[in-house]
Specification:
Length: about 290
């Protein structure tokens, strides 16, 4: 199914003003497909509109291809593989687009990707996600999702500069905006207002990541612009050595966050599951 159909205002549950639910999963390390299959079975109970699959390597990533095909063929769900500028040439991407066409895949998420920490050049044919989006639209009929950053991309000087970059991705053919995770809903609400003022009409899907550990939050904050509200910060510090309490608090916090987003009228909730379905399933049980 195409993204424009998934996020259409005429969707079946529009009368309930309930957002579209989707998940992101990661290719397993080594051969841990069985555990991922179990996670997917749990998540599938909540009738997700789509599942996105990350890739840590090139478009020829065998693990990603296997998972994408499994979700499409066995679970009969719309699947959205990630494609990045980093480490992918035009030839790589063109080859993968052909694979997706033969597999009847309808959607892809176009990303710049994380630059190598050692500073080596990893982008060759595509410097920006807008370049990749333009290439995908010119060489396929895929629906393309793009990334948005409620607090601005780490490499941008201002949120307005970041929104101008987002507009380039939309103009290149991006149809739906999936945001980076955030914990402060006010940042998201302001972001939506700024997008509207900038004339961006594409649906904005809120990225939600349940807090599961102190290390997880510390890593995310170090990699991106993500504000931690004072209340959340105090609880994270309190439970940093208590995994169960941290997990349970994470579920409680994300439940309240999602409910406020639903009340706001968000078009979609996209859960970054970290291949740990328990927290996400608890949150959905609370809000459904």
């Amino acid at each position: 199914m195409k993204l424009k159909d998934i996020y259409s205002l005429n969707r079946e549950n529009a009368e309930k003003s309930f957002p579209v639910i989707s998940f992101e999963v990661f290719p397993p390390k080594d051969d841990g497909y069985e555990s991922l299959d179990t996670e997917l079975e749990i998540l599938n109970k909540y009738n997700p509109a789509l599942i996105s699959v990350t890739s840590t390597s090139t478009a020829t990533n065998v693990q990603q291809k296997k998972i994408v095909q499994n979700i499409h063929d066995k679970l009969k769900l719309t699947v959205m593989p990630h494609l990045t500028c980093v480490r992918n040439s035009k030839q790589d991407v063109a080859s993968y687009l052909d694979v997706l066409k033969k597999s009847d895949i309808d959607c892809v998420l176009a990303l710049r990707g994380d630059q190598p920490i050692d500073g080596t050049k990893a982008c060759t044919d595509f410097c920006y996600a807008s370049d990749l989006t333009d290439f995908i639209k010119a060489n396929s009929d895929l629906s393309v999702g793009v990334a948005g950053y409620p607090e601005g991309h780490l490499e941008c000087k201002s949120i307005l500069e970041d929104i101008n970059n987002l507009k380039k991705k939309i103009q290149a053919g991006g149809e739906v905006i999936y945001t980076q995770l955030f914990f402060d809903n006010d940042k998201f609400f302001k972001y939506c207002e700024l997008l509207s003022n900038a004339g961006v009409e594409a649906p904005v899907v809120a990225g939600i990541m349940p807090v599961v550990s102190y290390a997880q939050i510390s890593r995310m904050i170090s990699l991106a612009k993500i504000s931690v509200p004072e209340y959340l910060g105090k609880k994270i510090e309190k439970y940093k050595d208590d995994k169960i309490s941290m997990r349970d608090f994470g579920i409680e916090f994300a439940t309240r966050q999602c409910q406020a987003l639903i009340d706001f009228g968000v078009r979609g909730l996209h859960f970054y599951t970290l291949d740990k379905a328990y927290s996400t399933s608890c949150i959905l049980e609370n809000i459904l």
